[in-house]
Structure formats: structure tokens, C-alpha cells
Design brief:
Radius of gyration: 23 Å
Oligomer: single chain
Number of strands: 20
Helix content: 25-40%
Structural class: alpha/beta
Strand order of the largest sheet: 9-7-5-2-10-1-11-15-19-20
Distance between the termini: 29 Å
Shape: globular
CATH architecture of the largest domain: Alpha-Beta Complex
CATH superfamily of the largest domain: Adenylosuccinate Synthetase, subunit A, domain 3
Low-confidence stretches: 1-47
CATH class of the largest domain: Alpha Beta
Length: about 500
């Protein structure tokens, strides 16, 4: 079985092939009858969250270090990464929320307020951008890692909105090493992208790219600087002098006011200062304690700055490897990776999309799935499932299980298609093309499935799904080489089928 379906398209759908797929995962990951209705309870007896600190604590004694080393050797880790396998908007928020019922700590490790996660609990929708999805569980620790492009204004807007709905915010912690998104980042993100004309990337104008550019150019302002009034005033003055010159010379834009920005953001700093700490030290201590930790990615594999459809990508690493640099957690401390797979494909912004349906099918998918951006409100581009890119994502992130979302959106379709390979100039490819020119010209190799034509939102056990739905899912596992772990059959938390019982 090769990467993208070249040989994948040759796999039969018979029982022998199905058994091979189920054998490719550990015994505990195989489909089990009667286990799909596993109930997951919330954390009990959660340890108190360490107070924010600035690194001024006394180092541990030799005896304490020895005791911690012994504990680390005997305490099993339980750390899970959730990553998107397509172009984002796969339903990560719902799956993270579901898994957060077991987790004690939820961590955002990259991206920023350009992410849009919608979580539905008891028919009540929560739209989150910066906030880790675990915030809806009282007692959970919610950490914004150092790899996040941190917008204090957006964060406070979310906090105020959640507080007004009775959500406990005491578990929030913000990395003192995260870089701060400032108004000039958002402004330059928008006008810079528009200046590209037909070559624009289609950013959300949230300032994420320019913030990371300042980081890499070593002129960024980190949270530790932001909460230090004297340091922030100095750095903001220096940076704004540069940015105002760029705005005037490149875009003929009026300068931004230093005093107004300083006063506004000092006010934000005063409110956020109690939540700031060294999250690297905190996370690694929690891992040593054996706490259950969930790492939540934003965007998805095909938007990764290195592995996605460059340049139509985000400015960070949504893949599982992003956890190491975005949260300060060593790769060997990650136990499992869950890849989120929407049962069809969507994309926002520019760039190639091999399975896009610019027709009545695409329109039906968009309307049935309400495919409009959480952050921008823009209609999403829609198409059939591309199993080739899911397999690619599995290889890059080492995905153990897939969580298939939005399967219910396909309930009314007479037939459903899945791309299992690419042809280019008449030949099957064995890779995802790096060249956008090639990717834009590939011919998807489709397999067609009969629809199940029934409402599946009330199904809670895998064996109770319609036969045609199971055929579709099992073929998905065969082509991608990733075991089925979770199937979502609706937006609500309880509209979920659990197949794998060892994710945590």
C-alpha cells in the first residue's frame, strides 16, 4: 500500500481487505461490537492549578529532584494530540470538547484567533477562537502555549463572553513566552494580502502571519514584555516607529497613534497579568504527575507552513510535531495522536482543492453542513472526501486514530464519492505533489458509494450504523491506513460513537 492511493485504488472492498485494515492498529483499536457506547466522565479530584509565577521560585532540592525522577519512572503518561487532517474546519472543537471530559488539562499550542472552534453543549453553541475548548469543564486547566500568536483583545472578549454565560475562568494560564498580536499586525495582514491582488492568500486578517514574522525577525513583543509596563512602552515605541514608516511608504496609510495604543494595551495587560506564567514548567510538571493532557491544534495539515499547499497556508505548524515547539513538550512525551477527518472536504481561501465541487453537489454540501466560517462568515469551498491527503496527514503526524466528523451531513445523499488516488498526465501518482501547478491539475480517482438515506444522529453504537455508512467508513480506514477511533453523528457532545477505548 503506497502513500496516496496509487496502489490504494487497487485495494478490494472484500472481507479480507477489511480485516487487514483492522489489524493495522493495536488490538485495542480494532472495531469492537458493543463498546461504541463507552461513557466518558469528567475529571474528578483534579489537582489545584499552580499559581502563575515569573521564574523567581527557589530551585528544588536534591531530594525533591530525586523523588520527582522516581515518580516520572513509575507514573504512566497520558498525553494526546488532536490535529486536523485536511484544510481546517474539520470539527476539532467538538472532538476536543468530547475528549476534554477525560482530560485534566487542555493546551493550545499554535495558531491564534484565526482559528474558529464551535462546541455545542445541550443545544447551546460556544464559538471559541483563542480559548482552549476544555474551558467548558469546571476544574480543567486551560493553557495557551508559547507557540500561540496571542491577541489580548480577542482573549478578553472571549473571557468576558464566557463569564457572562457562567463559565469558570480560574483555570486559564497564558504562556509568558507567547508573542503578542498588536493592531499593526492585523492592519498589515489585511492591506498586505489585498495588495497581492489575484495572488492573495486569503488570510483572516487576524494578524497571525505578521506577528510570527516579527517573531522570526526578532522584533516581536512577548507576553512577558507585554505585562511589564516599562518594557512594553519601550518596545512598542520602537516597533511602531518602524511599522508607521512601512505603512506610509508601502501602503500610503496614516500612522497609528502610540499613546492611544499604549493606554489601551496597558489596560489589557492589567487584566491578563494574573493568568500569565511559565507554562513550559507547568506542563512538564503536570506530565510528571501523570495528569491527562490534551493538546489542541488549530487549522490543519494542509495549511501547515511547510507541509501544506504553500503559500496558501497558515504561518505555524498544526501537525503533531508542532506540540514540541509550541508547548515546550518533548516528542517522546506524546502518547497518542488523533486526526480529525471531516466526512467530506472544505476549504477557505485560495489554493488548489482537487475534489472541489463547483456544482449543485458542492452547493448541497455547503447548505446541509452550514459551511460558513466561524471567524469570517465566508462561505467555504466544498467537495468530496480526499483520502489521499488524510493518509498524507497520518504519515506526517503519526496519527493513531481518526475521528470522523459530520458524517450525518451526508444522510440525504443518493451517492457519495471518495478520492482514493490522483492521476497526472494519465499516470497514477504515489505522492502528494509539492508543486501547486501539478496539484491543481491532478485528476481525482473516485470510488462511489451508495448513500444510506436515513437519519443517523440518534445512533450511539458502531454496529447500529447503516450498512452503507459502515462501508464508507471502513473504506476510509483502508485507504488512509488509520484506524477508526471516533465517529461523530451530530454537533452535540452526546452525538458521538466511540470505537477506541484507549485514547486516554
Amino acid at each position: 500500500m503506497r502513500l496516496c492511493g496509487i496502489a490504494l485504488g487497487k485495494i478490494s472492498r472484500g472481507s479480507e481487505a477489511r480485516q487487514r485494515v483492522l489489524r493495522c492498529a493495536p488490538q485495542s483499536a480494532r472495531l469492537r461490537r458493543g463498546r461504541a457506547d463507552l461513557s466518558i466522565g469528567g475529571p474528578t479530584g483534579a489537582a489545584p492549578l499552580p499559581k502563575p509565577h515569573g521564574g523567581g521560585q527557589a530551585p528544588p532540592s536534591k531530594t525533591e529532584r530525586r523523588a520527582r525522577a522516581v515518580k516520572r519512572r513509575i507514573t504512566p503518561m497520558s498525553t494526546v494530540v488532536v490535529t486536523g487532517t485536511q484544510w481546517g474546519d474539520e470539527g476539532k472543537g467538538k472532538i476536543v470538547d468530547y475528549l476534554a471530559q477525560q482530560a485534566e488539562t487542555v493546551v493550545r499550542y499554535q495558531g491564534g484567533s484565526n482559528a474558529g472552534h464551535t462546541v455545542v453543549v445541550n443545544d447551546e453553541a460556544y464559538k471559541l477562537r483563542l480559548m482552549p475548548s476544555g474551558i467548558l469543564f469546571k476544574g480543567s486547566h486551560c493553557i495557551v502555549g508559547n507557540g500561540v500568536a496571542f491577541d489580548p483583545k480577542v482573549m478578553l472578549e472571549e473571557m468576558d463572553s464566557l463569564a457572562a454565560r457562567g463559565i469558570d475562568l480560574s483555570g486559564i494560564r497564558i504562556s509568558n513566552r507567547a508573542h503578542v498580536v498588536l493592531p499593526y499586525h492585523c492592519l498589515m495582514d489585511g492591506i498586505g494580502d489585498e495588495a497581492r491582488g489575484k495572488n492573495k492568500v486569503g488570510t483572516t486578517h487576524r494578524g497571525i502571519g505578521p506577528c510570527y514574522m516579527d517573531r522570526d525577525n526578532r522584533i516581536g513583543i512577548r507576553v512577558c514584555d507585554f505585562i511589564d509596563k516599562e518594557e512594553f512602552a519601550r518596545r512598542l515605541k520602537e516597533n511602531l516607529a518602524i511599522k508607521n514608516k512601512e505603512l506610509r511608504l508601502l501602503y500610503d496609510h496614516e500612522p497609528l497613534d502610540y499613546d492611544a495604543m499604549l493606554a489601551e494595551y496597558n489596560g489589557y495587560a492589567d487584566r491578563l497579568r494574573p493568568y500569565v506564567c511559565d507554562t513550559i514548567a507547568l506542563l512538564n510538571e503536570e506530565i510528571a504527575q501523570g495528569r491527562k493532557i490534551l493538546f489542541e491544534g488549530a487549522q490543519a495539515t494542509m495549511l501547515d507552513i511547510d507541509y501544506g499547499t504553500y503559500p496558501y497556508v497558515t504561518a505555524s505548524h498544526p501537525i503533531s510535531g508542532g506540540v514540541a515547539v509550541g508547548a515546550g513538550v518533548a516528542p517522546k512525551k506524546i502518547d497518542k495522536v488523533v486526526g480529525i477527518v471531516k466526512a467530506y472536504c472544505t476549504r477557505v481561501g485560495e489554493g488548489p482543492f482537487p475534489t472541489e465541487q463547483l456544482n449543485a453537489i458542492g452547493d448541497k454540501i455547503r447548505e446541509e453542513g452550514h459551511e460558513y466560517g466561524v471567524v469570517t462568515g465566508r462561505p467555504r469551498r466544498t467537495g468530496w472526501l480526499d483520502a489521499c491527503i488524510v493518509r498524507y496527514a497520518g504519515l506526517i503526524s503519526g496519527i493513531d486514530y481518526m475521528a470522523v466528523t459530520r458524517l450525518d451531513i451526508l444522510d440525504s445523499f443518493d451517492e457519495i464519492k471518495m478520492c482514493t488516488g490522483y492521476k497526472y498526465q494519465g499516470k497514477l501518482l504515489n505522492e502528494i505533489p509539492a508543486s501547486l501547478k501539478v496539484l491543481a491539475e491532478v485528476e481525482p480517482v473516485y470510488e462511489t458509494f451508495e448513500g444510506w438515506k436515513t437519519d443517523i444522529t440518534k445512533v450511539r453504537k458502531y454496529e447500529d450504523l447503516p450498512a452503507n455508512a459502515k462501508k464508507y467508513l471502513e473504506r476510509m480506514a483502508e485507504v488512509t491506513g488509520i484506524a477508526l477511533g471516533i465517529v461523530s453523528v451530530g454537533p452535540n457532545r452526546d452525538e458521538t460513537i466511540v470505537i477506541a477505548d484507549d485514547i486516554f
